[in-house]
Amino acid sequence: MINYLMSLWESFVKKTIIKKILLIFLLIIYIFIIVICTVHISVDKTTPGYVNDVSYLIDVESENPRGKVYTVSVFSSQKVSILEYFLSSMDNKSSIIKGKRQTIYTKKEENKIDTLFKEQSIQDSIILAYETAKSNHYDVSLSYEYIGYCLLYIPQNYLNTDLDDFRIGDIIIAIDGVDVDENIDVANIITSLSIPEKKKFKVLRDNVEMEITPSDKMIDYLTTQKLNKSLGYKSYKIDYDNAKPKLDREKSNTVGPSGGLMQTISVYNAIIPEDITHGKRIMGTGTISLDGSVGKIGGIEQKVATVDLYDGDIFFLPESNYEEAKKMYDKIKKPSFDLVVVNDFTEAIQYLERLGENNG
Question: Cα–Cα 20 to 30 A to 106, which of 27, 209, 274, 277?
């Protein structure tokens, strides 16, 4: 190797001045390219992404028209190359914030929280769609039973507690020997715990029952963070096989709760005879709750840009995201879609029904 490098040097020395300068210049360019492509910096980057056909995630076995209903995803990264950073900085449809995002959760914990959020959104979407159709006198049925309260925001690694303490994904099924039901405010009980008067919790962890007595560190964290409603969610077991019409669930290629509204619209449209989408490409974003309320999401500007890339006709979004969304919408030349603000699922359905009347 040394002999090879020496021969290169000798060859270089024999070159003319012009050739030496050219070689040095090319070497500098080569090193520069290597550096900007391989050296990474910590940023919070979000760019336009892609749309997902909900029917591939929740398959309703029905001959009713499914319609073209899509959730909207974005690409995000917390570490990018120098080249990616500069390219994103020049793109007015991307968001890039310098510095490492502060969090008390490990990457593994964040992934688990986002995965559970997706499970909640699918669960609530299916239940809400069937219950709404049933209340509107359609011939549908869905059986489901309450399991317990699933915990989300438990920073076990940060608190450095033992395995017999609360963990992300634990489903609380009993407190001090009393089974919990869906009317019990488990979140309020947990955030009102006191160290002198500890309670015993029975939880399901990976389908195995176990007793938990929260540690002093866990109680102190849960009672001072004011998490309450965001602490977790009500978990249900849905009888997919005996649903009318029957439905199946596929593995999701996305995480997080932002697809909730569109999942509900898609399922509802598939279980009723009418096609309330009327051939339009319906896209949107927003979390969904069992009471039908639509919640705020992140990356709204990049989602607006994504809808434009995929030629959407309608983009549903929560009212709390409207101002940010409108900024990006105004940057688009001749957008193909309308921004439609909704506060709950019923408003979205009513909008689509009116759309059909206007088309008629």
Answer: 209
Q: Please state, in angstroms and rounded to a whole number, the distance separating the CA atoms of residues 74 and 102.
A: 21
Distance, CA of 190 to CA of 192 (rounded, Å) = 5
Number of H helices, E strands in the chain: 11, 16
CA distance 235 to 148: 5
d(CA 291, CA 297): 18
DSSP secondary structure of 272-328 = SSS-TTTT-EEEE--EE-TT-BEE--S-HHHHHHHHHHTT-SEEEEEGGGHHHHHHH
| Nearest alpha carbon to residue 315 among 346, 344, 348 | 348
Model confidence at 13, pLDDT cuts 50, 70, 90, reads low
Provide the greatest CA pair distance for the chain: 91
pLDDT of amino acid 195: 75
Query: What pLDDT, in 10s, does the model give residues 207-238?
Result: 999 999 898 888 888 887 766 557 899 999 99
For the stretch 290-349, pLDDT in tens is: 999 999 999 999 999 999 999 999 999 999 999 999 999 999 988 999 999 999 999 999
Contact 343, 291 (CB under 8 A): no
pLDDT of residue 307: 96
pTM, two decimal places: 0.86
- pLDDT at res. 358: 63
Cα 247 to chain centroid distance, Å, stands at: 22
Task: Show the DSSP H helices in the chain as ranges.
Answer: 2-13, 17-38, 82-89, 107-135, 156-159, 186-190, 216-224, 260-271, 300-309, 322-329, 345-359
* Pairing, β 144-151 against β 294-295: unpaired
